[in-house]
Amino acid sequence: MRPKDLKRVLFIDIETVATFSSYDDLSTDMQKHWKHKSSYIKTDNTYTDETDRARQLYLDKAGIYAEFAKVVCISAGLLSTKGDEIDKLRLRSFYGHDESVILKTFADVLNKHFNRTNRFFLCGHNLREFDVPFLCRRMLLNGIKLPALLNIPGKRPWQTPHLIDTLEYWKFGDYKNYSSLDLLTSIFGLPTPKDDLDGSLVGEAYYIRDDLKAIVEYCEKDVVSVIQLYFKFKGYPLLNKEQIISTTNFILGDEEE
């Protein structure tokens, strides 16, 4: 993809937390389902009580399972160009305590500005295995029709070339290994997004400190890291801080040729 075509790529990252702050807040039915789900999760800790095990694993792991978690932030980055050169990166985040509003607002942006899979792209790290499936599942659970870029049920990877995954770039066909965004930014000498927060602490920031600002900043840093990593893969010059701006709106579409 040429640098001037990157304005058709929406770089995204999401942050998720368990649906409730603790296992004990789950309904009896959902506690049963979580006990079953968590029984397959490996842990180095030893528990004598099945409920204690389920309770701790809910705190540690529930946030990554769409059936037991929700989206609290979606950050998106859009590049603009001048001729053949990359000009600016605009960051916009959708966040809050009402997941349905977050998802509906993001879906509206995709429907309005990114509504053709033969023209627009989504890019993220582990996008195919986590971000996109999680968003799709949570949209369906919230009664939101899937936008074109997310309408992928039953499709094979080769049928969804509009999904660009930096993890797949790094795998080079090797499916035995997972390399985190944090690891790849470190080995490429890029700024790490994990300076103030990491994924394991998002639930604490949300439920205990009610610090949405920290979650948004962390999520946006991940988006920037994904873009910088993608640029490393493609041999493009890295973005500098002056090129990165936050916004509450995107101006996009076919008029930006």
Your description of this structure?
The structure is a single chain. Residues 252-257 have low confidence and may be disordered. The chain is built from 8 helices and 6 strands; from the N terminus they run βααββαβαβααααβ. The two termini are 15 Å apart. It is globular. α1 crosses α2. The chain is α/β, with parallel strands linked by helices.
Give the topology, please.
Elements: E1 9-18, H1 28-38, H2 50-61, E2 69-82, E3 85-95, H3 99-113, E4 121-124, H4 127-141, E5 163-165, H5 166-171, H6 181-187, H7 202-207, H8 212-234, E6 244-246
Parallel strand pairs: 1-4, 3-6, 4-5
Antiparallel strand pairs: 1-2, 2-3
What string gives the helices and strands in order?
Answer: EHHEEHEHEHHHHE
CATH architecture: 2-Layer Sandwich
What is the helix content? 25-40%
CATH class: Alpha Beta
Number of strands: 6
In whole angstroms, the N-to-C terminal distance is 15 Å
Regarding quaternary structure, what we see is single chain
Mean pLDDT: 91
Descriptive keywords:
257 residues; 8 helices; 37% helix; alpha/beta; 18% strand; single chain; Nucleotidyltransferase, domain 5
